[in-house]
Amino acid sequence: MEFFLIILLLIAIIGLSNILNHFTPFIPVPIIQISLGALLALMPLGIHIQLEPELFFVLFIAPLLFHDGKNVPRAALWKLRRPILLLALGLVFVTVFAIGYLIHWLIPSIPLPAAFALAAILSPTDVVAVGAISSRVKMPKDIMHLLEGEGLMNDASGLVAFKFAIAATVTGMFSFTEASWSFLVIAIGGFAGGAILAFLIIRLRIFIRKLGMEDVTVHMIIQILTPFVIFLAIEHFHLSGILSVVAAGIVHAIERDREESPVLQLQIVSKSTWTVIIYILNGLVFVLLGLQIPSVAREIFEDPTFNNFVVIWYILIITTSLLFLRFLWIYVSWSASWMLKKYQVKKPGIRPIGITTISGVRGAVTLAGAFSIPYVIADGSPFPERSLIIFIAAGVILVTLLAASILLPILAKTEKGKMEEKKVELERIAMIRSYDAAIKSVRELMNEENQVAALAVISSYNQTRNNLKYIGNEENMKNSKQNETEIRMKALDAESDYITKLKKEGKIDRELVYLLEGHIHRMRSAVTNQMKYRSLMIWKIFNRSVYLLALLFMPNKQERRNNRSTINKKLLRLKLEMAELAIRVVKEELTKENEDVSLLVIGDYSKLISKMKRTKKITVSKVFTHVERELQNKAFQAERDEVQNLYEQGFISMDLTRKLRKHINIREAYWMEESSLHQ
User: Fold this and answer.
1) What is the pLDDT of residues 324-338, one digit of tens each?
2) Does a structural domain hold residue 581?
3) Which domain holds residue 264?
């Protein structure tokens, strides 16, 4: 029961960290989660979770890397394969030797093999930490893909090097030839094994589907178990479990792209489930890291053999050396690639090299590897400076995280700085993005029951969005208006053809034909000539007023009113049929290029239909209003979420965030007031 309560507490801390991040977006979530974890460990609650490296790798690293492998852009990684391998293999082994010798020279009490072990475990970068920090920074795409590829690959090379360095420390024996051969076998075997097992699991899922078992729950259980089963199976044969789950993720991504008839419900459930799982696991990694730091620090700070300031100095020197070596390696390798005309990376520049260097954040793998160091060596004596090694590893993680948090926003500031100088343009872009989010949320909720109300909401957003989108770009606005005119005219042509068809079949009388043709004529004028349309509407209102005035002095007033009411009902029914026909025609003409304009036209017709139905009492007004209100509320919330997201990414300032929120609140208040009048 106590362990269950601790798990609930950790999950609550993850939620709290994201709430705090909403108010302090300039502090990355990992830093907040580590701080909360450390604070929890310092509180007199008696909470202590022993970090078991093997369990940590299978429980956290396996599903996280499997998910990254599924979602990584494969084409971009293949294009950047040389720089990725240079970082994931070349830089790792250079780091092991260069930083290993530095650590041994700096701290002679750490034997050379143990220094190599510490350097090896400090060499892998943490793709999870980089992703969390870069989410609020506008990172260049090529650099982000490079970092993702490096993070997926260098865990294996770093851990293999760490394994051999630990073995050399424990046994006192080391063979470079044997280590090199073992590395190739472990890496290639792990990758190939993971790909084969993933293929077999996919075939199992297809076989189950062929048996008629489309149960989403069964398929989701198989998906969730996949990374754990593959990792444990490959590790059982002493191969790289980390590379196996990366390979498995890539194979699953290929299968997903090639699937001819994907199960839509399974895809939706899978995406939602994995989003929650990855969210919790990411958070737990950093909270657990924070929980370990106080005990590690206490062990060093309370030991009289260590000078606290000197130990902190060690951490700063080693971190600086790691970053300097990374900068030097990237600069030399990119320059060589450029000179050899290997155009997988752009011409080296200080800013992109600096971004890639600072993004080399150390994280969960480093700490888990450090805790896996044995307590004793072969002769039974304690492992040399085990506590100091773990403390240095934890310190490097914190320093690299802080350095990335402070320096990345500065280095990655490109167009954002210019946008801040153009506040009006920035506000326009932010509003368009918030409207896009609202439209997307309503589309996702749209079904057959609420289609009319959904299209009405989407139409109002599309109209405002399109007006904002083309401000300052007359050519695009002209093209958009021309497309809208063409689509509306096609819809009106369809309505006109329908009237002609009914006329030929003798299903409507001459008076109805006259009235409907007048309606079509006015609508054509509204599309092509606003002045003419206004004149026609004024003339129509004048005629109606004269008729109503004359009706007061005509005999048989009631009979004439009844006849007029009958004609109006027939007219309303025919207009309803014409509008529904127009929507079908517009849908048939809908393409990706004219989607925005087509949905705007469909939305206008949908609003007209809903209005006519309420007039004709075909549907209950309150039901429509209730559905429309629910959808509009979802849309307003989607706007707020997108504004918050833009603020957290650093795209907009707090002042602009407040202004946009106020704008949403005002529109919501007016809309609620207006909708209440129709109840």
Assistant:
1) 999 999 888 877 766
2) yes
3) 2-413
